[in-house]
Amino acid sequence: MKLLFLPMAIFLMALLYSSVGHGGASGYLAAMALFGVPPEIMRPSALTLNLIVSLIAALQFYREGHFSWRLFSMFAAASIPAAYLGGSIHLPTRVYKPLVGCVLLFAAWRLWTSLRGGSEEVKDPPLALALLLGGLIGLLSGLTGVGGGIFLSPLLILAGWATARQTAGISAAFIFVNSAAGLMGNPASLRLLPSSFPFWAAAALIGGLIGSELGRRRLPPRTLRRVLALVLVVAGLKMIFG
C-alpha cells in the first residue's frame, strides 16, 4: 500500500505547492509521517524532493519573467548562513513547532482577508530590512527543516514587495538554495534514502511540472493567493498537530 499511495500523496503535494512556487517539504513530511516512514529517512527525503520541485518551479516562473534577481539576492544573502546556524540549534519541539504553526496560520488569514484589494503594484524593500528578515527566515528554516518559502511568500505579498507570480518565482529559488545548503551541511544523510525513493522523485517531478505550469500561466493572481493561503493552513496545522 505504501509503495502506491505514498507516491500519489507526494504527487498531490508537489502539484499544490509548486503552483505557488513552493517545494513542498512540509507536505512531504506530513505524507511520510502518515505512512510510517522512519524519522531518519524523512528529513533527507523531504529536502531532496524539495530540491526537485523548487528547481522546476523556479525555472518555469523565471522563463515567464516572474522573477527578480535583485529581490531574491536581498533575502537569500543572509538566509543561507542563517539556515546553517538554525540547523545547529536544537530547540524543544514543543516550543518551536506550535509557535511556527501559529505564525503560518496568521499569515494565511492575512492573505485571505487581503484578497479584496487585488492590487499588483509593488515597491522595493529597504536593503537592511530585507537582509534582517532574510536572516530571520533562514534561521527559522534551519530550525524547522523546511526551505523557507512558507515564511517568505506571505511576507513579500503582504508587504507589497512582489506580485503573486513574482513571489512564486522568488520563493522557489529561495527554497532551492536553502534546501541545497541543508543537504550540503549533512551529505551523509543522502545514504539513508530508501530504495523506493526513485518512485517518490518521479511523482514529485510530474506534480511539480503540472503545478508550476498552472501557477505561471493559468491561475489568476487572486487564485494564486488563495492557493497559497491553503498551503499555509496545511503547513501550519502540520506544525501544530504533526
Write the layout of secondary structure elements.
Blueprint: H1 2-18, H2 25-34, H3 39-63, H4 69-87, H5 93-113, H6 127-144, H7 149-158, H8 164-185, H9 197-218, H10 221-241
Helix pairs in contact: 1-2, 1-9, 2-3, 3-8, 3-9, 4-6, 4-8, 5-7, 5-10, 7-8
Transmembrane segments: 45-62, 69-89, 95-115, 127-152, 192-211, 223-241
Membrane topology: Multi-pass membrane protein
Keywords: Cell membrane, Membrane, Transmembrane, Transmembrane helix
Structural commentary:
Belongs to the 4-toluene sulfonate uptake permease (TSUP) (TC 2.A.102) family. The chain has one domain. It has 242 residues and is an all-alpha fold. It is built from 10 helices and no strands. It is globular and about 45 Å long. The longest helix has 25 residues, at 39-63. The chain has helices spanning 2-18, 25-34, 39-63, 69-87, 93-113, 127-144, 149-158, 164-185, 197-218, 221-241.
